[in-house]
Structure formats: C-alpha cells, structure tokens
Carbonic anhydrase
Amino acid sequence: MRTLHELFENNKRWAKSITERDPEFFPTLSKQQAPKYLWIGCSDSRVPANEIVGLMPGELFVHRNVANMVIHTDLNCLSVIQYAVDVLQVEHIMVCGHYGCGGIMAAMQYSSHGLIDNWLRHVQDVIRKHSSVLNTITDGKEKLDKLCELNVVEQVINVCQTTIVESAWARGQKLSIHGWLYGLSDGLLHDLSICITGTDEIDDISQAALSRLTKAYTK
Ligand SMILES: [Zn+2]
C-alpha cells in the first residue's frame, strides 16, 4: 500500500470500536440488510447521510448525486429506487437537499464546468419552471436557498411519478416520500412538510408545499 495509509488506519479503528461494542455487529450485518429508508441526497462531502440522521450501517439505503436529482432516464437512480422499493421494501424515501448547494449554484449562474453542465440542465428546468418567483428575489443567497427548496419539491414529485413508486402504491405497498433540506451551517434537518403516501396525494401536497415556500414572493 503506497498511499492513503491513514484512511486504512481510520478504518481499522472504526471497525474495532464497533466490534468492541457489539462483537456480532459485522457478522450479523454481513448476512442481510433490511433498511427501512432510502436516502436520495447530494454528493456534497458535507452531507453524510448516515451521520446526519444517526443511523448505523444497514439502516439506510443511499443514492447520492450532484444536486440530489431524480431524472426519469437516469438508470442508476431508478435502479436504486427499484431495488429499494421492490426488493428491500423500504417504507420511506427521503429526498434531502441542502442549503448552499454548489451544484444548484452552478446551475443558477449558468457558468460552464464541463460535462456536468448537461446534468445541471435538469436544475435549470426547475429554475425555468419557477422563474416568476425566483426572479423576484434579488439577494443571491436567498435565491439559491429558495431554489434548493423548490428543487427538493420537484424531485419528490419525480420520485412519486416513477413507474416504480406508482406500481408500489397501486399494489397497496406502504411507502412514504418525504422532502427535506439540510443546513450546512447548523447541521440541522428541515422538514419541508411534504409526506406523500399515494398517487392521489401528489398534486395537493406538492402544490401546498410550493405555495408555502413561495408565499412571501407572490402577490
Ligand atoms: Zn449539493
């Protein structure tokens, strides 16, 4: 091993501390996983899914990408959702964005960063959809944070509209989709008060959330 020695040392310490507390932890976990939750979050290194919600290995199924997007043609994300819902039978999917998201900021600034520009086009679709509200906000930080919130609502709707989730609800599977925002500056989660548990709730609950989030900016 030539490099990154310290990371392997960290790993040994981490595994040792868990084994000391529970000698059966890893042997038990190696046989199966039964998480109740699927976390869809941003790749940002400051938003570590398990740590934020205090869950151990085995308790949270995770998908992360830049700006926590759920794109209907993204086979990676769709495969994660499908496996989580159909095989692991998770009961909750949370889309968790975060304030001050660099991906969202890059999309908002229409600046060029290479290949990722293509990915961020999807955020720009969200910007166009909510331009009437966003254009009323002059403060850059406020606008960014509002877009982070609106983006989570749109991605929650996208999760709900996947054939995977629609089919799960149609067969009576218990499944709730949530929209959250994480604060980098205080480490706290904010619930956007979106909890959708069936196809017939998508429009009303997402519209109510969007109205709450944009109330201060609309006449
Ligand atoms: Zn981010």
About this structure: The chain has a mean pLDDT of 96. The CA atoms of residues 170 and 199 lie 8 Å apart. The first helix runs from residue 5 to 21.
